Amino acid sequence: MKPLTGKVAVVTGASRGIGRAIAMRLAKDGAKTVLCARTAGALEAAVTEIESDAGTAASMALDLRLPESPAQLADFAVRHFGGIDIVVNNAGATKRGAFLNLTDDDWLDGFALKFFGTVRLTRAAWPHLKASGGSVINISGTGGRTPGAEFTIGGSVNAAVQSFTKAMAELGVADGVQVNVINPGSIRTGRLQKRLEALAVEKGTDLVAAERKMIAATKTTRIGEPEDIAALVAFIAGPEGRFLQGSMIDMDGGATKTL
């Protein structure tokens, strides 16, 4: 039997990148998986791929920045598959840039999806997770632990998600819900590709050399793959990872060097 057979998983930001890889892996491991993002076509393509591999999935296109959307997503998962066992809060991208050029709207948008989307979906799903002895896995980022001047919004949002995780983990002990957070480092996504392209232009080199420069500058082992994060999510949510509670795991190739 697959390790997540009989489980229902909800994954946000699941149309591409890390979220898509997580949804694919949880479905492969037997979970009935609900994918959510704003792009319906990309979600439908992911569901088709899961089903072609004998998995079970459904999707719901929503803007999780809207206050009512997370509850709608939780209700959809319960109606469609009968409950919720796993929630992966992955959605959310924040604007990089010089601090003095970032507006209030940039800050509000950064918190609206990644932080408040996480809070609201966790709240909506909590009664179902409590009933099932389920698991919440928040995808934050290393910028929450090692802030940078070009990442003031993202670092602040990630730190808030990490603090929220720790608080909910304490409640989870009482309610029987597992809560943990993963901090990915540089992962090969579309956003990272754009950064590599900009670096290549800046240094007058090709993408391969730009990637080597990025790895050298951050003193890391390599660029991560979305599947790396997905494998860790599957482990945490599976039977072998259940002793993890309130854990903050840096999966970043060694980028985070502080204790």
List the helices and strands and how they pair.
Blueprint: E1 8-12, H1 17-28, E2 32-37, H2 40-52, E3 57-61, H3 69-81, E4 86-89, H4 104-114, H5 116-132, E5 135-139, H6 152-175, E6 178-184, H7 190-203, H8 207-218, H9 226-237, E7 248-251
Parallel strand pairs: 1-2, 1-4, 2-3, 4-5, 5-6, 6-7
Helix pairs in contact: 1-9, 3-5, 4-6, 7-8
Brief overview, please?
Helices cover 49% and strands 14% of the residues. The chain is α/β, with parallel strands linked by helices and 259 residues long. The chain has a seven-stranded parallel beta sheet with strand order 3-2-1-4-5-6-7, sandwiched between helices.
Which structural category do the helix and sheet elements fall into?
alpha/beta
Mean pLDDT: 97
Going across the biggest sheet, name each strand in turn: 3-2-1-4-5-6-7
Helix content: 40-55%
Tell me about this structure.
- The protein is 49% helix and 14% strand.
- The protein is α/β, with parallel strands linked by helices.
- A 7-stranded parallel sheet has the order 3-2-1-4-5-6-7, with helices on both faces.
- Helix 4 runs parallel beside helix 6 and helix 7 (190-203) crosses helix 8.
- The N and C termini lie far apart (39 Å).
